[in-house]
Design goal:
Layout lengths: L3 H14 L7 E8 L12 E2 L4 E6 L5 E5 L5 E5 L6 E6 L10 E3 L3 E4 L6 E9 L16 E10 L4 E9 L11 E7 L4 E14 L8 E2 L2 E2 L3 E12 L6 E12 L9 E7 L5 E5 L12 E2 L2 E7 L7
Parallel strand pairs: 1-9
Antiparallel strand pairs: 1-2, 1-5, 3-4, 3-6, 6-8, 7-9, 10-11, 10-21, 11-12, 12-13, 13-16, 14-15, 16-17, 17-18, 18-19, 18-20
Amino acid sequence: MKTLSTNLALIGLVLAATPRANAWFSVGGVFCDANNNSVLDMGDTPVPGVLVVVTNTSGTYSNANWTTTEGLFTVQLPNFPDSFGTFLHPLTLPDGTTEVLPPVITFSTTEAQPIVTNFFLIRNPNCVTNIPPVTPGRCWLTGGGTVEKGKGQPAFSFGGVVNPGCSPTAAGGGNWNVVWHAGNLHFKGLDIEVITCGNVPGSPPGSTSPKTDFNYIDFQGVGTLKGNGGNKADFGSVQFTARAVDLGEPGTADRLYLRVFNSANETLMLISANPSNPTEIAPITISTGNLQLHQSGCDKR
């Protein structure tokens, strides 16, 4: 049986081989949660023969396709931006299935992101094993650059360090800065906690410069959001969640997600490939610069 990493790497081949023009797709996979931890990881097994259904929110488009022996699927979408929901047809799920995680995945396509990746887990006692949950990885981050084009300048500029030297205490866990040029706002992440480090489904595991076992880092924390460029706004203390993806050198394939929000859970700043669903972790490819994961020092404290 192929390993999960091999199966997920096939998604990367689909993405690489799919022409960008006139090719809008939902791709992904369906796996059985073998260790019952609600997280897609190396212990989970592919589920073939499941019908994956995609419909747009206006009800004017619907399409479907079956998962392969590797549990993977590709569903073609209309060749223009739209919002969709995707689900697994219940009559095609394996006998004994008790739950689908998530029951429905919502997403949107854009001119910049016509191909969207989605993954489902099912709960089924026939695939449960005694495999323990995967221990979250440890890494740290440096980076800087820009995201998206704006009028004469990028939409966002970013830079900083997260958990320098793999220390959660040095410099308050790091310093992460993002300037939203169109909104004339400057975010500073000043109290940072790494949630986990891992590998993006559909991409080869690890990163190469420097060499690490992981290619993404999830982090969160507290910071400030203030106006700049004549904007006098001051939102005071804010919270944020972020993901940085390091997929190679130079950083032309690297991706960044950031959501800054207040105590009422209102989104104040967002870098996302799916702005219609701000809480979904949907990193967008950076325009310039580089994001680099590091592991040196992670095993020394």
